[in-house]
Amino acid sequence: MRQDGRPPAASSPQTVRIDGRRLRLTNLDKVLYPATGTTKGEVIDYVTRIAPVMIPHLIGRPVTRKRWPDGVEAPSFFAKDLEAGAPSWVRRMPIPHSTGTKDYPLVGDVPTLVYLAQAASLELHVPQWRFAPDGTPGRPDRLVLDLDPGPGTTLADCAEVARWAREILQGMGLEPLPVTSGSKGIHLYAPLPQSQTSDEVSMVARELARAIEADHPELVVSQMAKAERGGKVFIDWSQNNAAKTTIAPYSLRGRTKPWVAGPRTWDELADPDLRQLLFHEVLDRVAASGDPLAPLGFHAGARAAAHGPLAAYIAKRDGARTPEPVPANALGASASVGEKPRFVIQEHHASRLHWDLRLERDGVLVSWAVPRGIPHTTTRNNLAVQTEDHPMEYADFEGTIPRGEYGAGTMTIWDDGRYDLEKWRDDEIIFTLEGRPGGPLGRVRLVLIRTDGAGEKSTWLLHRMKTDAAGRPQPDGTPVEASDQADDDPHAPAAARIAPETADSPRTAGPERGSPQESRVSTTEAAAGTTVTVPPPSELRPMLATAATPGIAREAARRWAGDDGHPWAEVKWDGVRAIGAWDGRTLTLRARSGNDITAKYPELTDTDPGWGPSPVVVDGEIVALDERGRPSFPLLQNRMNLSRPEEIRREAPRTPVRYHLFDLLSVDGRDAASLPLAQRRELLESIAAASEGPIDVPPVFDDTDEALAMSERFGLEGIVVKDPGSTYRRGERSDRWLKVKLTRTQEVVIGGIRPGKGGRSGSIGSLLVGIPSVDGLRYAGRVGSGFSDAARARLERLLTPLRTDEAPFIDVPAADASDALWVRPDVVGEVEFAEFTPGGILRQARWRGIRPDKAPEDVTPEA
């Protein structure tokens, strides 16, 4: 972009950076409005400059676009679904349709507006509702009446009808605001308290239109039939329907000239020469007087909003009980124009000392909790956990939040100032902070890199860049220091927060001396110079969860909630369990079965995780992510069944894995299993704060329903609800950890093969599977779908050596046994299924993969 904020006037493609987003602009001198010679570059200039007042009326609403790629004199078309080539940073939300689900774009920033203009989306149409937090359409927050002049009537006639409607609406306690539509008529908007459904609002609007028609039949019609509109103004009340949209305020129109849906004042509507406004006139009006429609927008301080970027912040605080600023409006402040955005770093002496980094963005402070503060050197990365957005007033807040309130503790400003933004993507933010003169920060260029999750509770790495924005080496800064460190200061050595063992300390018993498992995984020298050891394989046994329904888990979470009253829920990752033992130099991985799987995942074990020289034993899940970033157990099959080094080297780049950590067994040679989960988690986060690459610590949810909703929305396997006070019980299945599956899966033992027919002749057609019981291997049915060609080949290699003449099942039906090839029941697999029949047979079973980490005796029926 040019220094004056306008796009370059050139026909050659231009790659520009807008608010940290990279965007390719093309054909900027292409004329879109021939009557006025208005080019695409001028359209982009308009949306860039009008954005601060236009975005408030778009944010949170699905946008239906009307596009004119070849200008307004050529054919146009409506676009609902965001095109496949749209930048990944353009936010989108799905809405089901009879023809399939469509992803609608959401406009919340300038780059998105510019992208839509680049695609010649001149008209932006939105409904009268915003998305609710669960992704469904919310209740309408405004009523709209579209006053459309029929043949023989004028815009002045529409203004007369608007005044009649205003009188009625004011009598209902609603204050309407007018917009000349940029086409022929006038739109009237009135803010609503979101207490009614779209159908109810539509009914009110219809009755209002009928009442005006009854009083003024000579000029007003409320019927849809076009034949009735001659010489009258049609009051279109139907746009309040949840499926209908209206041209957004400040949107251009695809007419002969670049008219705009322009907000007006009631005084202007009294002008007999009232006309539509052109885009340059709207820019001048806003520069001089601001937004007449402000009470409808998300920055309207006079109107509370139930949903918006500050909804989570407000829900956690009571303004009568905390000195923190608690705005009535959940939708933030006006975006600042013409100056650099603000930042603040606050030192927060809460239950755990940490620093809060807050960056101004779209009228709120996007916030991260940083346990170790701003990294003072380029050689380390600090963990940052995204929290809820904070109001802009928080940039000046210092004070003590009372005990019992959210975030209780003392908050002081460590440093603040302005920042320069280079890039803002969903997974990477590059920026340069410049603190107060003489302050502790100085000028520093940083990058935030998202490692897991999205939005609140997502985890990031905060890194000090080696060079400044000009490419010059960036010197180290002063280490972050607190004025008075709490007893549980996360900067303290991890071992110092584990009480030394005494005769009364609980400890999991190790193997008897002389047993084959007595040998240790490794021995290393601790920082203090004493020899420490990592537990032997017999102690590297994972704690297991008990299956539960959402209701049972929800009630347990309520009972287990800690002092802060929040439950503990984690994502149930669709991968393989792995205990990681770090000896100060090497990470060893063991499966649930005890098998060493270190060599299978070199990207996890061939690099330094940044955990320091002391031994650590962690618990976690190895996952492979699909193209949408979701864990995929079938995809992980490409890795977990490989054994030859050359196969692993070839497949690792094609199917990379991640290691999600969620618990800690020992640290610095001391057993942590007897500590409560909440304390183990604190230790884990402090140790793993410097982890880079594919090893991370996913966030914990403090709302069970939110965790379930998120898992269902993103197609995850489910959640695990845990007692934050639970100890770690090695190798035991505990009811203090409850797993809730959203997709029903079942581990099974393979006992037979039915040969394929037709095109599958000579290979596996289906598998006969069972579940162990006290009487033997109980038959659970056939699995004939879900196999890739590679999976069939792998199963044939695995099962052929296990062929036997004896059926391993105790109750297989004769029809299924008629052509079966039996195998020894040594191999465990996993299937998805719809339900169990009364006879214990899996219905609609689909193959997911082999489970080499499980033994047949580990298989139990899922609840």
Description of the molecule:
- The protein has 863 residues and is an alpha+beta fold.
- It has 5 domains: 14-126, DNA primase, PRIM domain; 138-246 and 255-296, Alpha-Beta Plaits (2-Layer Sandwich), CATH 3.30.70.3300; 311-464, no CATH class; 537-740, D-amino Acid Aminotransferase, Chain A, domain 1, CATH 3.30.470.30; 745-858, Nucleic acid-binding proteins (OB fold (Dihydrolipoamide Acetyltransferase, E2P)), CATH 2.40.50.
- It is built from 15 helices and 49 strands.
- The strands form 13 sheets. An 8-stranded antiparallel barrel has the order 21-22-23-24-29-28-27-26.
- β22 (353-361) and β23 form a beta hairpin.
- The two termini are 59 Å apart.
- Its cofactor is Mn(2+).
Please tag this protein with its features.
15 helices, 5 domains, globular, 8-stranded antiparallel β-barrel, disordered N terminus, exonuclease, single chain, DNA primase, PRIM domain, alpha+beta, about 15% helix, about 850 residues, 49 strands, Alpha-Beta Plaits, 6-stranded mixed beta sheet
